[in-house]
Amino acid sequence: MKAIILAGGAGTRLWPMSRSTHPKQFTDLIGEESLICDTYRRLLRWLPQEKIYFSISPGFEEHLHTHLPEVPPERIFIEPEKRDTGPAMGYVAALLELSDPDEPIVFVPSDHYIKDEEMFLYCLQTGERLILETGKLLDISIEPQFPSTVLGYTHVGEVFEEKENIRVYTFLGHTEKPSYEIAKQYLAQGDYLWHANYYMWTPRKFMEAFDTCAPKMGEVFRQIQECLREKTQEGCAHAIVLYGELPKISFDYAVTEEMDPQNVLVIRGDFGWSDIGAWDTLYHCLSQDGYQNVVKGDCLVLDSTGSLVYGVPEKKVTVLGVQDLIIVDTKDALLVCRKDQAQRVKEIVQLLAQSGHQHLL
């Protein structure tokens, strides 16, 4: 099996630490190493390094080389331009189909927190086995903890298989980022799981899914394949032009919501998962002190509770008498917001862009 680490996102809800030129996957938000290094080391416990690839946006090459200098260029897929996970995953599948169409692959996000790595890797191994046994797309989903409006939901049916504490379900459908009321309904029903974005299949099957579920995109990928088969400068240039014609759309919207349920199985992942997408999510992943604070950097926190405080080495950050705040200080920008407003940080980034502060993005 090959693993492709998806590392092309911008992580705008984790501003000001995550920037368009230095996004969250290349920052040490949790431990001593960056999120992308954590993801790579985790996969190395299962796969040899020659089986681990990366998909990155243009401009991220230097970051990847800085954090993981041992990764050679031939294991890096660089999107011709940033167009979300639908085009990015299709581009990788199209290229891999040319060389090894039937070896299973798994797309692995670079910015997830995994508490139980052994169980996580066993879920991936289970997915590989079931691809070979059934020919179906395998997905990992997580039991929801609260009604989220920023995650997708997987509707599961009957149990297909249960072995060694891993339960596999049939697939009934997918809903991406529902409203709060619908998310509450899903939580109450008990047959909806959080979609974790670990897609496992073969390159050939991924390409067939585009042909069926998003035929216009599938046609572009087939044209890109023909261009790259030529192995000429003109062919590569035309492939880049074709890629720019693809819509900016996630794989979830483009393919998953249109999938035939008969072609999908869902693994319930019980391995302490969290998508590090915003500051409030990060807060719940990290160890808290006796006052439920998370503090990182040169910070002095007094008479404060339930807050996340991040500072930089060059500056002393002092906090007094606050509750449930997010405080993130960097060299050129400071964020202060209520913890329950952390999902709205993306709006701040949009306002900065509209007001001409591109240097802060």
Automatic annotation (TrEMBL):
Residues 2-285 form the Nucleotidyl transferase domain. Gene3D superfamilies: Spore Coat Polysaccharide Biosynthesis Protein SpsA, Chain A (3.90.550.10). It comes from Candidatus Uhrbacteria bacterium GW2011_GWE2_46_68. The keyword Hydrolase does not apply. Residues 300-351 form the MannoseP isomerase/GMP-like beta-helix domain. GO terms for molecular function: mannose-1-phosphate guanylyltransferase (GTP) activity. GO terms for biological process: GDP-mannose biosynthetic process. This is Mannose-1-phosphate guanylyltransferase (GDP). It holds the Pfam family ManC_GMP_beta-helix. Keywords: Nucleotidyltransferase, Transferase.
